[in-house]
Amino acid sequence: MSSPRQSKGSTKIAVRAPIEHKSHRTRNSTRPPPAPKNGRKFDPQVFLDTIGEGRKVLLFPKKQTIFAQGDPADALFYLQTGKVRISVVSKTGKEATIGILSDGSFFGEGSLAGQPFRMGTTTAMTDCTVLRIEKKAMVATLHREHTLSDLFVAYLLTRNIKYEEDLVDQLFNSSEKRLARVLLMLAHFGKEGNPESVIPKLSQETLAEMVGTTRSRVSFFMNRFRKLGFINYAGGPEGGLQVHSSLLNVVLHD
């Protein structure tokens, strides 16, 4: 049967081509990523290396106290350069060194967890450059910038692992092995980068506190390590200590 003739003056009807529907996933994959705020990507290391709102850089000469046990806990600190000693004093007046921090370390983070007062004292072992970050500024940035929160959480987890290793070391290893481990850690053996050739001078009393033994035992083992060539005293005004990789033999030997 033939189709009916089109009458004069009739209007042709345009038929649209079929529309290709893209899935939600496809549309999202072709869409350009959103532009970062202020036109640039947040860099956590730049945040920790520079001053800004709620952040200021402080310089502490050797032996100066950064904060003392019992001070208000109102800020977090980031150690840009130098070494810091953390110590606590008991009610009876006995002092103990619980840690030595190096470049790239956070400390005073208890303020973020609602700690009202400092639980220990931090003292500069060398000339130090420290970034002080107000609690409010740090909390706001951690919520806003995931790259910084990832870095901060990774640091806390790494330090928690170290504390667990310290506890195992204290429970099961001899004081000689514990002293060797402390010296190797101070020289950064086992960490990324090259070990430090010379570590700052530490008194034997401080080493004894960190190891959990007496000063006389530390003196005995330090003399033994020196005679075996595991360590050397650098001499000079600073009186640093050079730790050699051969000291690992003491830690690894059963």
How would you sum up this structure, described in words?
It is a single chain. The chain is α+β, with helices and mostly antiparallel strands and 254 residues long. It folds into 2 domains: 40-172, Jelly Rolls; 174-254, Arc Repressor Mutant, subunit A, CATH 1.10.10. Helix content is 35%, strand content 20%. It contains 8 helices and 10 strands. The chain has helices at 24-30, 44-49, 135-144, 146-172, 175-186, 204-211, 215-227, 248-252; strands at 55-60, 65-67, 75-81, 84-89, 95-101, 105-107, 121-124, 128-134, 231-235, 240-243. It has a 4-stranded antiparallel β-sheet. It has a 4-stranded antiparallel β-sheet with strand order 2-7-4-5. A two-stranded antiparallel ribbon has the order 9-10. Strand 9 and strand 10 (240-243) form a beta hairpin. Helix 3 (135-144) packs across helix 4. It is globular. Residues 10-15 and 17-35 have low confidence and may be disordered.
